[in-house]
Amino acid sequence: MIKTFRGILDDGGQDKIRLSTKKGKIGYKIVKFDLFPNKPGWVDYESLGQVFKIKQTAIATTEATVDFADGNLLAAGFFSSTAATSGSESYVQVFEREIFNQDIYVTHTQQSGNALINYYLELEAFNMTDNAAAVSTLRDIRLNPQVGA
């Protein structure tokens, strides 16, 4: 089953995607992550969107970085366009083998300026065995002690 989520984020914004259940027996993996400008052709964009397993305590509003070694990063996307031209660029990297059963967080950093960005997220949902759910939850608790709190 595919679940979709969409939203709009301001510079430095963060949305929580509620996925957790009491028993954690529904697993998810990201199928698609896209960014789209709020005002296409009106504003210059250099937007960075990222999806994390844990809530981010600080989100840069300029010059954010992407760290593929971060075990909590599930996807990253970059969208760039100039209002004066019709050209745009978009790069997306989804770590599709990452399976999770807890809430996830989408963040946005406008690398230059201050503009809103739309995001679209597709998740594949599937049933997990008791053992797989326990392993996924324990892994998340180990990576982020706040999950168990």
Which terms summarize this structure?
Jelly Rolls; single chain; mainly beta; 44% strand; five-stranded antiparallel β-sheet; 149 residues; elongated
For the record, the CATH architecture stands as: Sandwich
Strands across the major sheet, in which order? 2-7-4-5-6
What is the end-to-end distance?
30 Å
Helix content: under 10%
What low-confidence regions span 5 or more consecutive residues with pLDDT below 50? Answer: none
Largest sheet: 5 strands, antiparallel
The number of distinct β-strands equals 8
CATH class identity: Mainly Beta
Q: What name does the CATH topology carry?
A: Jelly Rolls
Element string (H = helix, E = strand): EEEEEEEEH
Task: Explain what the structure shows.
By secondary structure, this protein is mainly beta. It has a single domain, classed as Jelly Rolls (Sandwich), CATH 2.60.120. Helices cover 9% and strands 44% of the residues. It is built from one helix and eight strands. A five-stranded antiparallel sheet has the order 2-7-4-5-6, with no helix packed on it. A three-stranded antiparallel sheet has the order 1-8-3, with no helix packed on it. The longest helix has 14 residues, at 130-143. The mean pLDDT is 85.
Short description:
This protein has one helix spanning 130-143, and strands spanning 2-9, 14-17, 26-37, 45-52, 73-81, 88-94, 104-110, 117-127. It has 149 residues and is mainly beta. Strands 2-7-4-5-6 form a 5-stranded antiparallel beta sheet, with no helix packed on it.
